[in-house]
Amino acid sequence: MAINKKQLRREFLKQRLQIPQETWLSKSQKLGDRLIAWEIFQQAQNILAFTSFRQEPDLSRLWQNFPHKNWGFSRCVGQDLVWHQVSISDFDNSMRSGRYGIWEPIADLPTMDLVNIDLILIPAIAADSQGYRLGYGGGFYDRWLPQAVGMKVGIIFDEFYVDELPHDAWDIKLEAIVTDQQLIQLS
Asked: In the chain, at which end, N or C, are there fewer CB atoms within 10 A of the end residue's CB?
């Protein structure tokens, strides 16, 4: 019997949550260094990102070291993602814990102009060599990505980069995957 997304999600999340804190920090730093060295990141001015949740890679070094870039973070509103521009100099006062316990922008921040996005750093539980990602199952990114403008980059730890994941017709392929060990450009 083929393994399904729900089973994989549960197994991969269990593995990720078992990563020791020191290892998680080291892997997050290596992943951040890989992004910082990437020419596409260096040239990007308008970036959509995420805050770490359930031991996702911690990308906070990126916005802390590059506060001059325009950073957008999402807020869950109903079944949709709403992207807000966050001033990095006032980051702590601009964010709060959202309905899923994920740090998200406060509602009265200006929304991000999504027409000129250069780079979208997308959280994932896992990703595969064809560019498919395994998310948390809520469908927020699945609903938003079809109209998204900008290079779609999956952010995962290397052990969650696999040959093949099950995928559905509505799944949108990533254009690149960045891990603590490698940068894979798919298109």
From this structure: N
